[in-house]
Amino acid sequence: MKERIRVVIADDDVVLREALAEVLRSDPLCDLVGQAGSAGEAIEMAAALKPDVAVVDVKMPDGGGERATSEIRQRSPRTKILAFSAYGDRDTVFELLRRGASGFIVKGSSPAAVLDGVHNVFAGKSSLSPSVAHEVVGRLAEVLESDSTAEAKAKSRLQRLHHAMAGGLKIAYQPIVQLSDGKLVGYEALARFDTEPAEKPQEWFAEAADAGLLTDFELAAIKAGLVSQPRKADTYLSLNVSPETVLSGRLQEVTSGYGPCVVEITEHAPVADYESLARALAPLRRRGMRLAVDDAGAGFASLRHILMLEPQLIKLDISLVRGIDGNRRQRGLAAALVTFAKEIGANVIAEGVETEGELAILKSLGVEFGQGYLFGKAELPR
């Protein structure tokens, strides 16, 4: 003799619920043990009665079929869920199946289709109405196509980034001068990319960070900068480095064999653990490498960098320097940073100096060094 199937129905539409009950009563192998009109009532009933199958309406009150499916599966794990709804769309089907439903039938299906659904899920088989099955197949096709497209895009991006590092990376050098007499004291190495698509350097680095290649990108730029750096006596090379790259431990190896440089930590790069960063910088400093905090004055983070990292150089952000001769607030902030730098034994470099008026104010404030178009643009080596 075949095993009987204990069934609970959950539907807020009394007429439909009773029609479904009549269908189940017509099957000698089905025992209708309870009827509920909301998700909450269905959950409590299933927890108490432990039915073999719960026929659950998708759109009923108190959380709908989604809540009912999830919580019935938690409180009565052996109960199979057969979702029942007039809504045959793919999103509904996938959400109910994701939450643990074993089958899905559309209201209006024949009594035979309903009973087949109950018997199938009881037997451990997936049961979908033909129209719903079509929707599921369509969604699966979309998911597979989407995954394939995403994988192809990710592969293409990685290829583009590796090509940019290997063949499109160039280094331009911008002079850094002593403001009092214009004497050349160093260069900042700035990455440029001669590859398609044409993007600004910061966009390439942002994309590299998003792909998990920021350290590789930065180290490639640093190595290129060191190899082709201008050979001028009594000058230094300044390199832009993120905290992530410093913490990787690979910077010391890449810079080994070259003269002392300056490592610039930008204001825009967040630092989660200053103690770890200081420890990673210590062997570089012992080799004579100096530390600069870049973009000072652009935001609070730069001040925190200065306090925690104790740099030898503080670089005033271009937004603070540009038009400083006509802005009292900019002059006040720059003066405060210069005073602070003197207190901690650091020198100040002004970025983006373009006019004689800006130069005059910076000199009057005690800024020692500067870079910008007034002294020379960033240029590729000849």
Question: Can you lay out the helices and strands and say which pair or pack?
Answer:
Blueprint: E1 5-10, H1 14-25, E2 30-36, H2 39-49, E3 53-57, H3 64-75, E4 80-85, H4 90-98, E5 103-106, H5 111-122, E6 127-128, H6 130-168, E7 169-178, E8 184-193, H7 201-210, H8 214-227, E9 236-241, H9 243-247, H10 251-255, E10 262-265, H11 274-286, E11 290-296, H12 300-309, E12 313-316, H13 318-321, H14 328-344, E13 347-350, H15 356-365, E14 369-370
Parallel strand pairs: 1-2, 1-3, 3-4, 4-5, 5-6, 8-9, 9-10, 10-11, 11-12, 12-13, 13-14
Antiparallel strand pairs: 7-8, 7-14
Helix pairs in contact: 2-3, 4-6, 7-8
Question: What would your notes on this structure say?
Answer:
The chain has about 375 residues and is an alpha/beta fold. It contains 15 helices and 14 strands. Strand 13, helix 15 and strand 14 (about 370) form a beta-alpha-beta unit. Helices cover about 50% and strands about 20% of the residues. The protein has two domains: about 5-130, Response regulator (Rossmann fold, 3-Layer(aba) Sandwich); about 155-370, TIM Barrel, CATH 3.20.20. The protein has helices at about 15-25, 40-50, 65-75, 90-100, 110-120, 130-170, 200-210, 215-225, 245, 250-255, 275-285, 300-310, 320, 330-345, 355-365; strands spanning about 5-10, 30-35, 55, 80-85, 105, 125-130, 170-180, 185-195, 235-240, 260-265, 290-295, 315, 345-350, 370.
Q: Summarize the helix and strand pattern as letters.
A: EHEHEHEHEHEHEEHHEHHEHEHEHHEHE
Structural class: alpha/beta
- Spans of 5+ residues with little confidence (pLDDT < 50)? none
Overall number of strands: 14
What Rg is obtained from the alpha carbons, in whole angstroms? 34 Å
CATH topology of the largest domain: TIM Barrel
DSSP helix count? 15
CATH H-level superfamily of the largest domain: EAL domain
CATH class of the largest domain: Alpha Beta
CATH architecture verdict of the largest domain: Alpha-Beta Barrel
Distance between the termini: 93 Å
| Biggest beta sheet summary | 8 strands, mixed, barrel
Strand fraction equals: 15-25%
Task: Give the helix proportion (percent range).
Answer: 40-55%
What is the global morphology? elongated
| Strand arrangement in the largest pleated sheet | 7-8-9-10-11-12-13-14
Q: What's the pLDDT, averaged over the residues?
A: 86
